[in-house]
Amino acid sequence: MLMVLFATIHSALPQLTQVVPWNTIPTQLSLLAGVWVFWDRTNNRGVSWLASLAAITYLIRPVDAACFAPMLVWAVLRLPTWRERITHGLLGMGIAAMGVATVGLVNLAVFGSWNSPYVQVSLAAVGFNSYPATFQWFWLLVDGSVFFGEEGAALVFRYPWLLLVPSGAIWWIRRDGVKVAIILATVLLSWGLYFRYNDFVPSGIFRFSLIHYLTWSFPLLFGLAVAGGWFGWRDRICRMGLVLAVLLAVIMTGLDLSERVLPVEVGPGWAKLPESRPLWVQFPKEPLEKSGAIRLDGRALQESRDYHIPYVPSDLRLLLGCRAQGTKLELTTGTTTAPQVGDYDWSWRWEPTRWWPPRD
Question: Is the pTM of this model over 0.90?
Answer without folding.
Answer: yes
